[in-house]
Write a structure and sequence with these properties.
Layout: E1 17-21, H1 22-35, E2 40-44, H2 46-51, H3 54-63, E3 68-71, H4 74-82, E4 88-91, H5 101-106, E5 109-112, H6 115-128, E6 132-137, H7 149-161, E7 165-171, H8 184-198, E8 206-208, H9 212-217, E9 225-228, E10 252-257, E11 260-264, E12 269-270, E13 276-277, E14 282-287, E15 304-307, E16 310-315, E17 323-326, E18 338-345, E19 348-350, H10 352-359, H11 363-371, E20 376-379
Parallel strand pairs: 1-20, 2-3, 2-9, 3-4, 4-5, 5-6, 6-7, 7-8
Antiparallel strand pairs: 1-10, 10-18, 11-14, 12-13, 14-17, 15-16, 15-18, 16-17, 18-19
């Protein structure tokens, strides 16, 4: 039997669809920029723009007037440049010494915190005859990267002594700006102001410490620049909107469809391990979504989806590619029906905050799990 010579180049679409509303992203940026007042706004597009697509999001934001982007790794910054992004780009979490020249070659701003990195940058800047402005990371209470107050002046002097380098600013990071009841942000803000007071030439530097929480909830923390991440993508750091700032709109939605509907009697175990056993005749819808798709296994027996505008609870363990939901109380469910995992359907809506609360996490992780796993469709719905 001869193998067919006819092959199609068509790649079938997935059952699951992640939709990114670039119009909502643009509107969120414009709202946040107005809220930032005189401070410049740096858009955080690290982690593939929190699962929303770094290159596509950066392009839309630049067109909307964004002049600064922040990423974690140097690799992300280079990808932005290769995609044609001309705005300033900050690489926030360090780099390998052998890659120092990339900052000069691609006009990327390094955020630094140690002498070894500074030496490598200086050597690259001199060799390529391309001076670099660096920002120094200071530790105001996060206990991650950054220098303490005792080391600030020494490193500032060291930067200024190195050929090819100059200090462009200092950057801190709040550990708890999403929790206004803790009092920690006030303490960290006071620490940052002490760093600021130690600077020998404050007037020429860009000082920045405010993340989304700082930008929205602590106006006094905005200084010269703010760095907005989760709020760009439509979510409030506290997990809800308590502020009269206008409405941030979620940018990402996630839908699937029903594969099969079956009715089983009482006493039936469902999915791996039979962690759920029916207590009555039950109608189950089988969905082609599982933890491979970012639908966390922690949603087993506690997650919900929307079908025909109503909530259907997850029954049994979430599998790698499949899960089951209870549609006993939803009339007329059939194979092919739309399933909303994240987003709105009818008058109801499931948010990343809700999913996060069910799995003991935060909206950031939910968005990254879903958006980085599935193929994305980009639209302008506004």
């Amino acid at each position: 039997m001869k193998e067919s010579s006819q092959r199609s180049n068509r790649v079938p679409a997935s059952f699951n669809r992640v939709t990114i509303d670039l119009g909502a992203l643009r509107d969120n940026f414009l709202l946040l920029r107005r809220n930032a007042g005189a401070a410049d706004l740096l858009a955080m597009v690290k982690a593939d723009a929190y699962g929303h697509g770094m290159l596509e999001c950066a392009s839309v934001l630049e067109q909307a007037g964004c002049s600064m982007f922040g990423v974690a790794e140097l690799r992300e910054a280079v990808l932005l440049r290769q995609a044609g992004i001309t705005a300033s780009v900050f690489a926030m979490v360090g780099f390998a010494a052998e890659d120092a020249a990339e900052f000069c070659l691609h006009d990327i701003t390094p955020v630094v915190y140690d002498e070894r990195s500074l030496e490598a940058l200086s050597q690259a800047a001199v060799a390529l005859k391309k001076p670099l402005s660096v920002h120094l990371k200071v530790d105001v209470g996060m206990r991650r990267l950054g220098v303490d107050q005792a080391g600030l002046q020494r490193l500032v002097q060291y930067i200024e002594s190195l050929p090819g380098l100059s200090l462009g600013g200092i950057a801190g990071h709040f550990p708890s700006s999403d929790d206004r009841s803790s009092g920690s942000t006030e303490a960290c803000l006071a620490s940052f102001k002490e760093f600021e007071a130690l600077l020998p030439f404050r007037e020429r530097l860009v000082c920045h410490v405010a993340n989304s929480g700082g930008t929205l909830y602590y106006p006094e923390s905005r200084f010269d620049m703010v760095r907005c991440g989760i709020s760009l993508y439509g979510y409030y750091p506290e997990g809800r909107n308590k502020d009269d700032l206008g409405d941030l709109r979620p940018v990402l939605s996630f839908t699937s469809r029903v594969l099969q509907v079956k009715t089983v009697p009482a006493g039936c175990g469902v999915s791996y391990g039979w962690t759920y056993v029916t207590d009555k005749t039950t109608t189950l819808a089988v969905l082609p979504v599982g933890y491979e798709d970012g639908f966390s296994r922690r949603l087993s027996n506690c997650g919900e989806v929307l079908i025909r505008g109503r909530r259907a609870p997850v029954r049994g363990r979430v599998c790698m590619n499949l899960c089951m939901v209870d549609v006993t109380e939803i009339e007329g469910v059939r194979a092919g029906d739309e399933v909303v995992i994240l987003g709105g359907q009818g008058e109801d809506c499931i948010t990343a905050d809700e999913i996060a609360s069910r799995i003991g996490s935060i909206s950031y992780e939910v968005l990254c799990m879903i958006g980085n796993t599935n193929e994305r469709e980009f639209v302008f719905d506004s």
